[in-house]
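User: Predict the structure for this protein chain, please.
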Amino acid sequence: MAKRAISTFSFLVAVVLTLTFAADLASAAAVNIVALGASNTAGYGVGSNEAWPARLQAMLGAKGYQATVANAGISGDTTAGMLARLDSAVSNGTKIVVYAIYNYNDARNGISPAEHAANVQKILSRLHARGIRTISAAQYFNGLPRQSDGIHLTAEGHAQFAARLLPEVIVAIGHH
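Assistant: Here is the predicted structure, written as structure tokens:
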């Protein structure tokens, strides 16, 4: 009787370990992420290797996630430009888009707040229609170290921005 109880217990432990291992493999599956935005995404003033998309990819890797974060930031871009290049910037197989879209370039280029909002909504609608999960990075931007122009992040600002985004991106990865 004791041998049967031990055998049953061993079997249950093996099942739990197998399920845990399978869950770990699922979370370790490669995830394609695209960072969509303008100069603060591109890494203006610090370079793309110091920009938040590269930092986010490194942080995900350090936590054991197999994730690629493609930097689709173009300095000076507007929401109209992002909308026009959306399909080429966000390739098939992309699971998550983290977007850092602000009104600064739109306003500088005569795009009204209403048109800005409409363009952002069109971008999100097209991504959602493709089954791509989206994360707005806007709430993580305030209070970060900036370059002397007061607009663009410093290298430390990019690192802090990526660290702020990390938990939400990890949750999104868990849903795929």
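Helices lie at 2-28, 39-42, 52-62, 79-89, 104-108, 113-129, 155-174.
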